[in-house]
Amino acid sequence: MAFTFPKPIELVPQGTKIPFVSFxxxxxxxxxxxxxxxxxxxxxxxxxxxxxFRGGTLMEIRTQGPADIGALRSTLGGLGLGxxxxxxxGTPENVLIRVSEQPGGEKAQQEAVAKxxxxxxxxxxxxxxxxxxxxxxxxxxxxxxWAVVLTCLGIFIYVWFRFEWQFALGAIVALVHxxxxxxxxxxxxxxxxxxxxxxxxxxxxxxxxxxxxVIYDRIxxxxxxxxxxxxxxxxxxxxxETLSRTIMTVGTTFLALLALYLFGGEVIRGxxxxxxxxVIVGTYSSVxxxxxxxxxxxxxxxxxxVKVAPKRSRAGKAAES
Amino acid sequence: MLYFNRWKIFIILGISFASxxxxxxxxxxxxxxxxxPHWLQMRMPLxxxxxxxxxxxxxxxxxxxxxxxxxxxxxxxxQNLRQERIGYTGLVTGxxxxxxxxxxxxxxxxxxxxxxxxxxxxxxxxxxxxxTDLDVNRDGSAITLKPTQAAINDRISSAIGSAIETVRRRxxxxxxxxxxxQRQGRDRIxxxxxxxxxxxxxKELIGKTAKLxxxxxxxxxxxxxxxxxxxxxxxxxxxAQEGEGGPQSYLLQKRVIVSGEDLVDxxxxxxxxxxxxxxxxxxxxxxxxxxGRTTQENVGRPFAIVxxxxxxxxxxxxxxxxxxxxxxxxxxxxxxxxxxxxLLRSGALPASLDVVEERSVGPSLGADSIxxxxxxxxxxxxxxxxxxxxxxxxxxAFSIIALIINIALIMAVLSLMQATLTLPGIAGIALTMGVAxxxxxxxxxxxxxxxxxxxxxxxxxxxxxxxxxxxxxxxHLTGLLGGVILYWLGVGPIRGFAVxxxxxxxxxxxxxxxxxxxxxxxxxxxxxxxxxxx
Lengths: 321, 534
Known about the structure:
The structure holds two protein chains of two kinds.
Chain A: H1 24-44, H2 51-54, E1 56-62, H3 69-77, E2 84-89, E3 91-100, H4 105-120, E4 125-132, H5 134-162, H6 165-188, H7 195-225, H8 231-241, H9 243-263, H10 269-297
Antiparallel strand pairs in A: 1-3, 1-4, 2-3
Chain B: H1 6-23, H2 30-34, H3 48-51, E1 53-60, H4 62-83, E2 88-93, E3 98-102, H5 108-116, E4 134-139, E5 142-147, H6 149-173, E6 180-184, E7 188-194, H7 199-207, E8 212-217, H8 223-228, E9 235-239, E10 249-259, E11 263-270, E12 277-283, H9 285-297, E13 303-307, E14 310-313, E15 325-328, H10 334-346, E16 353-361, H11 363-417, H12 423-452, H13 457-489, H14 492-527
Antiparallel strand pairs in B: 1-7, 1-16, 2-3, 3-5, 4-5, 6-7, 8-10, 8-13, 9-10, 11-12, 12-15, 13-14
């Protein structure tokens, strides 16, 4: 071959031994604190729901030349439509207008849209209009919650069948952790929480479990291979062995998402932001929460007879720990 | 693991080639597309968020249907009791039922039997029970008639069916291509119109019930008297259309002479004397007959043209109108006359429709989204490719070939299934790039480990594939689970994301496991390397 590829860079040097398990107490405490903080945030500040979940109207407009937000605010504020939020959106010409849901049902909402459009005049280009009524927003919220719960449940059952209930529990703790922290960030910074963010949450669940399963697979393999190794050493070994893969995958995914966040446009920025954050949290939780969690609850050590689904394993479980 | 028979190679290369072939039409100009053979002309349909258009979720006003039914029920009760010469007091139309009190006790049974005979069996009899559309109950000297839930559901169902037809006719008249109009749930209709730039106009066309009636003006008392006292039985006060100089409201007979159902045509035009925009119409023969007879009997008196409960105009009948055609004038603008004629031609909706969800995207935002989505995807591709080649050298390059085929497979499947590509869908493709190489990463890491443990290259390569296999399946299946639920959750654009993610995940099973294995095996048999280049 005329052209030779450079020697691959080893991101994780051979024989790396990071004592992940010994950090467990620290990170577990940290995560617990952050999760509690999320609960406090949700209870006090709450989420800044977008119109998908709250009802109301959203319009993206483009003005000729930089938009005069102050003038827009006074023009639209005089329409008597209640609270109106106006903000620049990406560029100085693009403006996002949010009108809260109108009392008086769906007809009133449509009238509000017509009023705003009339007040803006014909020199302004309306690039996007979204109107969600209260019935639909309620249904969407309900559906979103169900989707997250069902996904977690589905993953729990899958991991339970493929591994053991302890693994499933560890996985689900990590997943709930990821969802919580992501939601917490949206609450802390009051970023718009809409349907695309829920889509991002579901994708994060998929990504995080992917990561966790890869590590669990290695743990199970090592459990069969090293029957006498203490559990904490075995977990450390498994995480270290898969560390190179973890970093490569989080690297490629993060790069792809970063490209989307930077160049994918304003419309999906909330979505890509949630994903970026979620991928980091998901990786963190797989390594620092899901794996060491197995020590906390203890797992069965005798895997010699088990191929895939552990069905008759109850008896041999108490032997270790 | 590294051996492939000829047929397998043929199939793997065939799938890869086909995916590239079916992806290609998405990147050529429309004129070049025309020159391709017919089976190659499929492209990914673009979602409303990319090509611009309106998504409307309409909900039927079910209360209107019920009210209308109860009103006709009430007049049937009146007619039935009169026929039997049964005296009654207080015929009350409530929110959910009609209630009538029989005056003389000895006529009660006769009245009850007569009214009970009004109930009709419903179409959907469940569990062998024959159900009727009315619950007729006795309550002291009163009889109540209440439509059953099953019957109301039946009515809603057929009303939605005919509303969909009407909405389709109205949108078709505007000449828009390929609107999607479908039923959603019990009482909703989803309308998606691509490329329609004026959502306000669209809503005006869809939202109007457009019930047109011709009714006589009741001149037995003035509107003021009727407002103070009680309007005469069989008459009611109707408001005039807003923005008119004439009277604010009219007292009209409730009886409908002719309704919009009897129209066979309606066209916008101009009055040849005043040059005012008007709508001309023609009745069918039975409508023409009724209209002719009524106008003949009422020369010199006014009649009213009522649209959706509002009086458009109330001209005086100068001569009997026997020809079956006429005109409506109501100080219209040209635009209004045009819209009204469309509404009349396409027929009335069974009940009004409310817009409960609207998502409209203008064409310029759509074009921007395509541009930014494409740019982001290209950058994502090169970033991932660089990272993989840095991390795995030659094998990284192999995985990039697999990645290209993976993306081509997603696009080819979307094109062939005619599944819509949305902006989140493009994000899904970019994300798939990051995740799809994960399978390769798992395999390569495994090979590296096996090689380090002292295995010969051929054994290390084989072990890499076989050992990573279970992990790949586990991680892919859980990923798919999320994708399927995402599809269920999804509204339009998000569904697009779920679809690309799911196809990408399945495709990566093929590209990462099978295709990469073929490439590595071919390379191995050619080069016979002394060590694994990882």
